[in-house]
Structure formats: structure tokens, C-alpha cells
């Protein structure tokens, strides 16, 4: 029930961070990470994970 950002593919564009309804995304060392304790895959807020929807890199944010 949480998504993960593949750090090696994340460009650090920051597009995902403000879209998260749970404030689960933060910057760490130039790329971004998702706190699995906070990520609900957007359930109850949106039909689809918003971070995936806005991320310009295909396959950067995946299910764990
Ligand atoms: S799936 Fe939703 S809750 Fe989880 S990190 Fe992405 S935007 Fe936040
Ligand atoms: S939108 Fe994608 S590439 Fe941009 S910071 Fe978030 S995970 Fe990284």
C-alpha cells in the first residue's frame, strides 16, 4: 500500500512533491523519496496515484 521512487531514475524535478495529499514525498540528496508510512497510494483522495500522474519519467515511481 505504498509507492516507491526509484532514485536512479528520479531527476529531482520536484513535480510530485506538491501533488501528494498525504505530504509523503520529500527531497533527499537531490532526488525525492516517499515515506511508506504516509503513502496510501492516494486512496480516498484520487482515483490514481497523483505522483505517478505528474512524474515525467516513465517507471520512476513503482509499487513496492
Ligand atoms: S501515491 Fe499518492 S499518497 Fe502515495 S506518495 Fe504518491 S501522491 Fe502521495
Ligand atoms: S516527479 Fe518523478 S522525476 Fe520528478 S522528483 Fe518526483 S519522482 Fe523524481
From TrEMBL:
Domain of life: Bacteria
Matching PROSITE patterns: 4FE4S_FER_1, 4FE4S_FER_2
Domain 4Fe-4S ferredoxin-type: from-to ranges: 1-30
InterPro entries: 4Fe4S_Fe-S-bd, 4Fe4S_Fe_S_CS
Pfam families: Fer4_9
Swiss-Prot/TrEMBL keywords: Iron, Iron-sulfur, Metal-binding
Stored Gene3D superfamilies: 3.30.70.20
Full protein name: 4Fe-4S binding protein
